[in-house]
Design a protein that fits this description.
alpha+beta; globular; 8 helices; Dna Ligase, domain 1; D-amino Acid Aminotransferase, Chain A, domain 1; about 350 residues; four-stranded antiparallel β-sheet
Length: about 350
């Protein structure tokens, strides 16, 4: 029997609840795919056999060292450089002469698929890009390496931008920042797909936020309508702006950087800015195990048990309280001590 192994990235800042969720999902996925899984094993081995779930997208170098030749051997993605797996690829550089990391490539048409914004790698570029964006309203500044809505701040004028930049050390600036138009009224949906041995699904759904321990809004879960098939076939069920944008973003960004991914998730936002102007675009991509993955996994289990079904709804919920769990809830992270409780469930009658 082939084995399922987890791959942890020692350089990634992963919270304990993320690790707990990944381990829980690994046991369920191993059962679904009829693979052997040892929760105590810490090394995935390098023999190229079996199936892997990485905590973060792998680099080409990491994949080669593990003898992973393509995306059929993992639930996640493989990228040429670490920055490609972040929000940084969702925006162009500030200028033709702007600072950039090694391997940076221009993505044709990216401006039409994302909010107005820039990716910057120097204080000078951050200041210039921020001032330009402020001419048309508030600007949201993001750390591209933070997850779940963390690591963000909204600035409304040049003085606020100046103070924020002055408080930063050089390291995060060189690593990259995202500056984009802030939306005051908005909704975010998840569009994505997963291709695993014997299974192919695609989905569209809504996201919600919840107040975190510090009072700021953070990711609170996703409710998905999951279909058998691919992103392309999803357009038949949802021929709308969000699915079209996600599909185009997927093709453009993955094509520009030669990304391999069996799990592809895109957060698409639509709303109005401080001037009342409507915007829509892909906020970021996820080519790794993410916030909606347990809903995907429960949908995969449902399809295995109900081969006649073509569609099922599932949700993930993250909260910081001890509310009553709904019927059918599968708890995969207990929470507490400032960490969210996480559960998922199938909603067979829709939502």
């Amino acid at each position: 029997m082939q084995k399922l192994s987890l791959i942890f990235d020692s350089s990634a800042d992963c919270a304990s609840h993320e690790v707990a969720a990944l381990r829980f999902a690994a046991a369920r996925l191993a059962a679904l795919l009829r693979l052997d899984y040892d929760a105590a094993e810490t090394s995935p081995g390098v023999n190229g056999q079996g199936y892997r779930i990485p905590m973060s997208a792998l680099s080409f170098v990491q994949a080669d060292a593990l003898r992973i030749s393509d995306e059929s051997h993992l639930w996640g993605g493989i990228v040429p450089h670490a920055f490609v797996a972040t929000k940084l690829v969702s925006h162009p550089l500030w200028s033709a002469g702007a600072a950039r990391p090694e391997g940076w490539r221009a993505v044709d048409g990216i401006e039409a698929l994302t909010l107005p914004g820039y990716s910057v790698f120097s204080r000078e570029d951050a200041w210039a890009a921020g001032c330009a964006l402020l001419q048309a309203g508030q600007v949201r500044v993001k750390s591209p390496f933070a997850r779940g809505g963390n690591g963000q701040v909204v600035v409304g004028d040049e003085e606020a931008l100046r103070r924020w930049l002055a408080a930063l050390t050089d390291e995060p600036v060189r690593a990259g920042l995202v500056l984009e138009r802030n939306l005051l009224e908005s909704s975010t949906c998840s569009v994505g797909s997963s291709c695993l041995p014997g299974y192919e699904i695609a989905y569209r759904g809504s996201q919600c936020t919840v107040a975190g321990p510090d009072g700021h809004d953070v990711y609170g879960g996703s409710t998905l309508e999951v279909h058998r098939g691919t992103l392309q076939t999803l357009r038949t069920a949802f021929p709308d702006e969000s699915v079209c944008m996600a599909e185009a973003y997927d093709a453009q960004v993955r094509g520009a950087y030669d990304v391999l991914a069996s799990r592809r998730n895109y957060d698409v936002i639509a709303g109005v800015d401080s001037q009342g102007i409507r915007h829509a675009g892909v906020l970021e991509q996820s080519w790794r195990f993410g916030g909606a993955s347990m809903a995907e996994l429960l949908a995969l289990e449902w399809f295995q048990q109900h081969p006649q079904d073509e569609v099922v709804s599932a949700e993930t919920v993250e909260s910081y309280g001890d509310g009553i769990l709904p019927a059918g809830a599968v708890v995969y992270a207990e929470g507490g001590a400032g960490m969210p409780r996480k559960y998922a469930r199938v909603l067979p009658h829709g939502y």
